[in-house]
Give the backbone structure.
Amino acid sequence: MDFTDKYALRREQSLFLAKKKWDENIYCGMRMENRNVTFPDTQTILSGVNVGHISLDDIQAILNMRDAWKYLLNTIDEDLSLGYLCTLNGYVSRNESLAWGVLRSGAVGIGGVNYQPPIPDGEGAARELGLILTQEGMATEKALDLFLWGTRSQLFWDGNKRTSLLGANKILVASGCGMLTIAERNIAAFNRLLSAYYESGDGQELKGFLYEKTITGIEFPHKALSEQ
């Protein structure tokens, strides 16, 4: 399958898209983790108003993602490294897990599958990430590969999918290639393909699904494109 970049946005267009869609991206991140929140609830919490029927844990998770996105956009030109992913996880999993912002040091299981990810090795993880980022191919494919690698590696005690989603979006936004947003209508199919990927280690079907269904951007008429 060809993973050609779908968008070629200028810097200001790319940052505009990210800021416009970050509430949707945060909400979809919550639904990806089966958090019981609605999009209006998420928007209300992001505006600084608590919602009485939402648990404190869910409010914390939404605010954590908000802070992670703020950090990402403020550091969009910094290199994406293992240390950078750890910093993102420090925001994402703050007060949610045994430790946040550091690599997992013990064994974990993944619900519903037999696959058990190995305890991560820092040097090995940094090397694997470097291979993804320096491979031939376009930014969109690198972003998808990072997302797949991060979710299956389970580098952190918690927040691996959300951290990987942020890392993938850093690549996309910095490159002007759109955003990766797993909308609620795609969650069931995503979960099914992700479970299959956990078990087999073959992520091609999931990667193709993400490319077709989750990469969004700003559409311009052909005339407008020619004038940019």
Observations:
- The two ends are 29 Å apart (CA to CA).
- The first strand starts at residue 179 and ends at 180.
- The beta strands are 179-180, 215-216.
